[in-house]
Design a protein that fits this description.
single chain; 491 residues; SLC43A3
């Protein structure tokens, strides 16, 4: 393989995997952290006076306002996790890797230090700290996704593996919960996470590029420890024309093939892709499935408390089980990437025999992944809607597999269906718009707790019916690819 040496690529890959696994998506272990916050009596003043100590069995209704406060914090943080990907994606595209990573480290360290020094008497800063934690985490993920470009035909596998590691990082809050139960304070755990910023800084300057990792890699490409001023200038000259050539050959457009003229390049601008039908249905697919996951994670502590009749020991056991299953997301996600890579290679061989469009072949490999993700979400939603406590073990498994496929499939689809030069902005746009939909989780939670009197049946049925819309996206992509196969001049 042309480009940097194998040891450097492997070191970059492994440290990137560790970074995503240990830091990027910790927010989604929220249920474990809420259990600790409740034990520390955060927002306990919102409970009714006769609720007693939270360590004893109490009725869920006694602390409805407390649950709503925790749900609101998660809603704001998960919203910012997606909403800020547009400006952070622009920063990554415009100012490149080093600036984006230094910004991520600043946000992440500020957040962990803020959480470390909060207490039951000063819990309001959590509304600021949790969003900052998620923004730093998503920047870590965005800057690491480009590492897939170092591994050629395994690109989709690496992307989905990193997204799986992002999901698995939610288990970090489980470790904090278990350490807390062994006598390690919440403050000590978050100070340790703050100290890890030294490692992030070192990795930024030693094992990551100053700019972007091009695809495909030019023969003289170097970065990190091996890069110098001269080689970077040469790399920029070499990589840019090769990237343009690749994009003109492989990237898709609904308006026709791009030409070398400036006028045609303008037609294939960012907005021509942002306003396309393909991206619109992808947004629907992502938003609906994501809403299910956010609503489930944000209300899990309340749900388990209700199903367990207020038994804190059962709530703790099921919370641990949920967090443990989340950790295995890193093992689930690569199967999605392997599926896409294998299908892409198979379709490419067929395309050489039949003369089909290479662009259609690349996109067609995403159809099974999109369909399977929708099916997994439907199964997860059905199990989550049945109020049987032991069944939630099945719900946890389907949820982690579905979520691993969701974000890995989302990133991989955007790399296959759109030019890489717009990846950061399109990724940010999709995540930002889906964040607006995710805000529905708080009013839905308030609706369940209020007018529906803790009965989520009507909300669950409505969301289940909405989930059926997600199957439209892979169907339309399949039709689009089939039309190109019949007429290769279309894409």
């Amino acid at each position: 393989m042309a480009g940097p040496s194998l040891p450097l690529r492997v070191a970059t890959f492994l440290t990137g995997l560790l970074e995503c696994l240990g830091f990027a998506g910790v927010l989604f272990g929220w249920a474990s952290l809420v259990f600790v916050f409740k034990t520390e009596r955060y927002f306990e003043d919102l409970c009714e006076a006769d609720a007693g100590l939270l360590s004893n069995a109490t009725e869920q209704a006694d602390c409805k306002a407390q649950d709503e406060r925790f749900s609101l914090i998660f809603t704001v943080a998960s919203f910012m996790n997606n909403f800020m990907t547009l400006p952070t994606g622009y920063i990554f595209d415009r100012f490149k890797t080093t600036v984006a990573r230094l910004l991520a480290i600043f946000f992440y360290t500020s957040a962990t230090l803020t959480i470390a020094f909060t207490s039951a008497d000063s819990a309001v800063p959590l509304f600021l700290a949790m969003p900052m934690l998620t923004v730093g985490g998503i920047l870590f993920l965005i800057t690491n996704l480009q590492i897939g470009n170092l591994f050629g035909k395994h690109r989709s596998t690496i992307i989905t593996l990193y997204n799986g590691a992002f999901d698995s990082s939610s288990a970090i809050f489980l470790f904090i919960k278990l350490l807390y139960e062994q006598g390690i304070s919440l403050r000590a755990s978050f100070i340790f996470l703050s100290a890890c910023s030294i490692w992030h800084v070192g990795r930024t300057f030693l094992l990551m590029p100053r700019g972007h990792i091009p695809y495909p890699l030019p023969p003289n490409y170097s970065y990190g420890l091996c890069s110098g001023r001269g080689s970077r200038k040469e790399e920029k000259k070499t990589a840019e024309p090769e990237n343009r050539e690749l994009q003109s050959n492989e990237c898709l457009s609904s308006n026709g093939e791009s030409s070398g003229r400036a006028q045609q390049q303008n037609l294939r601008s960012f907005w021509s892709y942002a306003l396309s039908r393909r991206l619109a249905w992808h947004l629907v697919w992502l938003s609906v499935i994501q809403l299910w996951h956010y609503l489930f994670i944000g209300t899990l502590n309340s749900l388990l408390t209700n199903l367990a009749g207020g038994d804190s020991s059962q709530v703790s056991a099921y919370t641990n089980a949920f967090a443990i299953t989340q950790f295995f997301g890193v093992l689930c996600a690569p199967w999605n990437g392997l599926l896409m890579d294998r299908l892409k290679q198979r379709y490419q061989r067929e395309a050489k025999r039949t003369g089909s469009s290479a662009a259609a072949v690349a996109l067609l490999s995403a159809v099974p992944s999109l369909t399977l993700t929708s099916l997994l979400c439907l199964g997860f939603a059905l199990c989550a809607s049945i109020p049987v406590l032991p069944l939630q073990y099945v719900t946890f498994i389907l949820q982690v597999v579905s979520r691993s496929f969701l974000y890995g499939g989302n990133a991989a689809f955007l790399t296959l269906g759109f030019p890489s030069e717009h990846f950061g902005k399109l990724f940010g746009l999709v995540m930002t718009l889906s964040a607006i939909v995710s805000l529905l989780q708080f009013p839905l939670f308030a609706l369940i707790k209020g007018p529906l009197q803790n009965n989520p049946l009507y909300v669950n049925v409505t969301l289940l019916l909405t989930t059926l819309l997600t199957f439209v996206h892979p169907f339309l992509v399949y039709r689009e690819c089939r039309s190109w196969k019949e007429d290769p001049s279309k894409p």
